[in-house]
């Protein structure tokens, strides 16, 4: 066991590692998440959040992901290439993304 205030880096996956693992390495996306929110959509949100954080954009509409209705907790085919890219290179220049569940 480890001290929860000093979590070893190898004790968890980054969102990008989880996304890429689900896309090509056989990781079951339903093993990612917490509570009743698991799967590709949970990973998607965290890939985007990680991208924001490494770009010093620490708050965003993505921080309210728990408010998304279940019907909106999906990953669209049109998002996959961008998510693959952000998962592999979260530190690329900031791409502003709007959560698809919020009213515009």
Written overview of the protein:
The protein has 104 residues and is mainly alpha-helical. The protein has one domain. Helix content is 33%, strand content 4%. The protein is built from 3 helices and 2 strands. A two-stranded antiparallel ribbon has the order 1-2. The radius of gyration is 14 Å and the shape is globular. The model has no long low-confidence stretch (mean pLDDT 89).
Name some characteristics of this structure.
104 residues, mainly alpha
Low-confidence stretches: none
Helix content: 25-40%
> What number of structural domains do the residues give?
1
The quaternary state of the protein chains shown equals single chain
Q: Tally the helices.
A: 3
- Percent strand equals under 5%
First-residue to last-residue Cα separation: 45 Å
Summarize the structure.
By secondary structure, the chain is mostly helical. It has three helices and two strands; from the N terminus they run αββαα.
